[in-house]
Structure formats: structure tokens, C-alpha cells
Write a structure and sequence with these properties.
By secondary structure, the chain is an alpha/beta fold. 26% of the residues lie in helices and 30% in strands. It has helices at residues 20-29, 71-81, 102-105, 151-163, 179-186, 199-211, 262-275, 292-301, and strands spanning 7-15, 34-38, 41-43, 51-53, 58-64, 93-98, 113-115, 119-123, 135-139, 169-173, 191-196, 218-222, 253-259, 276-288, 305-312, 315-321. The strands form four sheets. Strands 12-11-10-13-14-16-15 form a seven-stranded mixed β-sheet, sandwiched between helices. It has a four-stranded antiparallel β-sheet with strand order 2-5-1-6, with helices on one face. Strands 7-8-9 form a three-stranded mixed β-sheet.
């Protein structure tokens, strides 16, 4: 592992779309430890997480452990200039950078958080002595979404604390790190089922549940509720995995929480309404202020009664109730 005192060199160059792979491969052959490609994109404001790659130069970013000024850098330029490219290669940019263990770098920004009246989210590497009445969620999110730092996660945790009463059954759709499912179990849920379309995050969530001593009360699976996009609706974010449990998802929980996006929430709201028992609670987040009316209208159309919207910054959380 490199020492933080080591000096590395980052090489960047903007490359025509048809030349990107050739340049990136040649960077690796020349000794780059890592190569990243950043395409030119146009974000679609009308669909969550949707963007279009543009027919414009991409930024190729390569990191070399040693590339001194002079001959080594001229040799890299010659290697790249010798490639059969569609467009002339612009000038390379060389910047000296410190060596970092990037997978660990983010931890310096992640600390103990107090959320709502009783909930505390504690990174697994930070000590904390719980106070009387506090519910502490210990977490190592890895690459999964859900550290408690994002506004939507905090809004969902606050709603869970306010809405969860007694030994109920809970369904978490889009579990990520497992933070919401774990908090629900620690708040007293009798049984929690949690699913996520990204199968790789399930192992992270299971490990976090073990860390908190609630693995026996949470059933994590790869999958989602069944849902089909409305005609003309964007496909980005559409669930690709089926309902992971044997029985159909009808009246299977007393509380459902989904911290995903407006597009997927709207898409799945009929399935949410089917999954919730009479009088049960649905907590939805992952969307911003401009999308509140769309999500609220979709909840009403699905037969749910929107009760309140909470806010943090531009992010929103909707709490709705199923009729008795």
C-alpha cells in the first residue's frame, strides 16, 4: 500500500469518443495504476437518474505511481501519438498528487449522528456510549447507499421513529446498506423484510444486521415489488428483479418504507398499496420538492391517504395511510 507521503502523477486528456478505449488501454499498458473515463453527458431533468451521453470528447484520467518530468513523460506522449486515432490528441496535462487509500478517505466525513428523538447512527469505527432511551444503529455502509448522512435517509428514519408502534411487520424496498431495516428492528418490529435491486448490496446489509444483533429478525433478499411502467414512462430506475419471496406481496406488512426516487415510487405505488395491510403506513422518500405533487397524487390514485410531507433542504418524505 502506498505511503501518504508518496507523490503520484495524474494524467488527463480529452479524447474523441471513438478513441477513448484505445487511449485508456495504452495508458494502462504504459503503467497507469488506475484509469477513469468521464464521458460528456446531458442530464435529463424530467427523469430521475437519467442522462444521455453526448457525442463529444470524454475526459480520460490516469494515475501513475512514478512519472518524472522529462523523458518518462515524453515517452508517454510518443506512445499515445503513435496510436491510430480518429482525431488529433490534445496536449496531456500532468499533475502531481498525493497517494491516498481512496476507499477509506470518505470515513473522515462520517461521524456519529443524532436523528429524531432517540435514533443515533454510529459508524462502526467510532466509539459512542449510548444514553438512556437511545436506539443506536451501528453501520459500515461500504459501497451501499445509506449512511444516515443523506437527507432522505434521515427523513425516513425520523418517520420510522414517529410511525412505528408495537411488534409490527415491516417491508423496506430499496434497502441499500440496511440502515432503515435495522433501525426498524431495533425500534421493536417483530419481523422485517428488506429487498434491493442491487444484489451486491445485500451482503453489506446482512453484515450490518449482524453487527447490530438483529440478523434473526431481518430477511434481506435481492428483488423488488412487481411493477410495470406506464405507457411512455422512463425505464430508468425500473425494477429488474422479481418479488423475492414465495407468497404474493399482498397485505404482507403493517409498515412499508421506500427511499428510492419519485419515478420508482410512482411506478410501484399500486404494488405498495397492495402490500400494506388495512390501516398500515407507507413512508416514501428519495425525491425533491418539485416531485411532491406527483408522488402524492400517485398515492391517492393507489388508494392511500397522504397525511403529511416532511422536508430537509430540497428533499421530501411523504407519509401515507392505508384505509381500514
Amino acid at each position: 500500500m502506498p505511503s501518504p507521503d508518496d507523490r503520484w502523477v495524474e494524467v488527463t486528456v480529452r479524447v474523441a469518443p471513438g478513441d477513448v478505449d484505445a487511449v485508456a488501454d495504452e495508458m494502462r499498458e504504459a503503467g497507469a495504476e488506475g484509469v477513469a473515463i468521464e464521458p460528456a453527458i446531458q442530464v435529463d431533468d424530467n427523469a430521475d437518474f437519467h442522462y444521455e451521453e453526448l457525442d463529444a470528447p470524454s475526459l480520460v484520467r490516469a494515475t501513475f505511481p512514478a512519472l518524472a518530468p522529462g523523458t518518462p513523460r515524453r515517452a508517454l506522449r510518443r506512445r499515445l501519438a503513435a496510436l491510430d486515432l480518429d482525431a488529433p490528441l490534445p496536449r496531456l496535462r500532468f499533475v502531481e498528487v498525493g497517494a491516498h487509500v481512496w476507499s477509506e478517505e470518505w470515513k473522515q466525513f462520517y461521524h456519529v449522528q443524532h436523528i429524531g428523538q432517540r435514533l443515533v447512527v454510529r459508524p462502526s469505527w467510532e466509539p459512542y456510549e449510548a444514553q438512556p432511551g437511545e436506539v443506536v444503529v451501528e453501520l459500515d455502509p461500504g459501497t451501499a447507499f445509506g449512511t444516515g448522512q443523506h437527507e432522505t435517509t434521515r427523513l425516513c428514519l425520523e418517520a420510522l421513529e414517529a410511525e412505528q408502534h408495537g411488534e409490527i411487520e415491516v417491508l423496506d424496498v430499496g434497502a441499500g446498506s440496511g440502515i432503515l431495516a435495522i433501525a426498524s428492528a431495533l425500534l421493536g418490529a417483530r419481523e422485517v423484510r428488506a429487498c434491493d435491486n442491487d444484489a451486491e448490496t445485500i451482503a453489506i446489509a446482512v453484515e450490518n444486521a449482524r453487527l447490530n444483533g438483529v440478523a434473526d429478525r431481518i430477511d434481506f433478499r435481492a428483488g423488488s415489488l412487481p411493477g410495470a411502467p406506464a405507457e411512455g414512462a422512463p425505464m430508468i430506475g425500473t425494477p429488474t428483479l422479481a418479488w423475492p419471496w414465495a407468497e404474493p406481496p399482498r397485505a404482507c406488512c403493517d409498515l412499508l418504507v421506500a427511499n428510492i426516487s419519485s419515478t420508482v415510487n410512482v411506478l410501484l405505488l399500486p404494488a405498495f398499496a397492495s402490500a400494506i395491510r388495512p390501516g398500515g403506513t407507507v413512508i416514501l422518500s428519495g425525491f425533491i420538492a418539485r416531485d411532491v405533487d406527483e408522488v402524492r397524487d400517485a398515492a391517492r390514485a393507489a388508494g392511500l391517504d397522504p397525511e403529511r410531507v416532511t422536508a430537509e433542504g430540497d428533499w421530501r418524505c411523504l407519509v401515507a395511510r392505508a384505509p381500514r
